[in-house]
Amino acid sequence: MMHVVIVEDDPLGGSLLREYVDGGEVRVNALYTSGEEAVEALGKLPLPDVILMDVGLPGMSGIETTEIIKKKYPSIEIIIQTIFEDAEVITDAIKAGATGYLLKASPKEEILKAIWEVKSGGSYLSGKIARKVLQQFNRSETTSSQEGLREESAHRFQLTPREELILGELIRGASYKMIADALCISVHTVNNHVRKIYEKMHVNSRGEAVALATGWDEGSSSIPR
Q1: Model pTM greater than 0.85?
Q2: What is the strand order of the sheet 50-54 is part of?
Q3: Which of 55, 67, 144, 167 stands the most exposed, by the fewest C-beta atoms within 10 Å?
Q4: Which residues contact 10 (CB under 8 A, 6 or more apart)?
Q5: 91 with 139: CB under 8 angstroms?
């Protein structure tokens, strides 16, 4: 018998997912609506074999929750489920310890296949997501001038990899909401990262940060604010 836990903040989505996988050799033991709830409950119940984890959870994200759970319970396999196909998010999920990554639109058969695959010691990426990872790898082989400037700034101001990524999005002109959606974190978390970036760069605004990172004249109308 395969024991599964679902972490999904949308009640309808969680209920449908439970109907999809509960039955036969797969038993859904619990359904939690937040990462915090799941982490707390796992210490009180028999550990599941697999967790189906929504990436865009309120509060602690699915990726942050995955990292915490894998550190405490390394035997649990975690499959990230999301509507996003963003390669950076996929990479973050894998680094956090996820062994599977599925789109929420995946059919029942694919979800069950992924569950059994990770439980048997393998990993699972849906076809679309695998292509995204490959495209990201190919792009990384070519460094643009903007990326070079961003990396130089990251080294100069001792930015973390996540801060470097967010600085790159600021240079690109993305809003906090766009950054939050792309990275599957809250706007509040983005704001905290940006505040730390400003502190390290000794600036007070997006315009100043972009100007310092790229060498643009801060008075230029091309600087996104």
Answers
A1: no
A2: 26-32, 2-7, 50-54, 77-82, 100-103, 124-125
A3: 144
A4: 54
A5: no
